[in-house]
Write a structure and sequence with these properties.
globular, 8 strands, mainly beta
Length: 131
């Protein structure tokens, strides 16, 4: 589950995170379930921005709080539809890794994260977002 870069005769492994999300309803956005993948960084600001891009369009002035969990994946039969052919389908653990509250413009209003989030995500490269 990694991408490898050669640097000075050494390989440095960068973990790739696969994100899936529960669709709010059919009319939320045309690209639901908005699968996304990105290289994991220990910078929580960059991580927040990646996650907020995966969230649906929100009508009116409402805000939504999404919670992140370890995800269960399945290799999609239609590989063109999902990044790397991987579809993150559901929550695998009841332990919440983070929560993020966003407004309709994808502005991050609140972000709470588990203290050891980076270590957990390095070991588990699948995330599932649930509202």
């Amino acid at each position: 589950m990694g991408i490898f870069f050669k640097k000075k005769n050494a390989f440095i492994k960068n973990e790739k995170i696969y994100v899936g999300r529960e669709s709010v309803c059919m009319g939320d956005d045309v690209t639901a379930p908005n699968m996304l993948s990105f290289i994991l960084t220990d910078d929580s600001g960059i991580f927040m921005n990646h996650i907020s891009k995966c969230l649906p369009y929100i009508a009116a002035d409402r805000t939504f709080t999404w919670k992140g969990y370890k995800g269960r994946f399945e290799t999609g039969s239609d590989k063109r539809r999902y990044p790397d052919g991987i579809c993150v389908l559901e929550n695998k653990s009841s332990a919440q890794l983070f929560s993020i509250t966003v407004d309709r413009n994808h502005n991050i209003l609140d972000f709470q994260m588990n203290d050891n989030w980076y270590e957990i995500m390095k070991e588990w490269p699948y995330l599932y977002l649930k509202r």
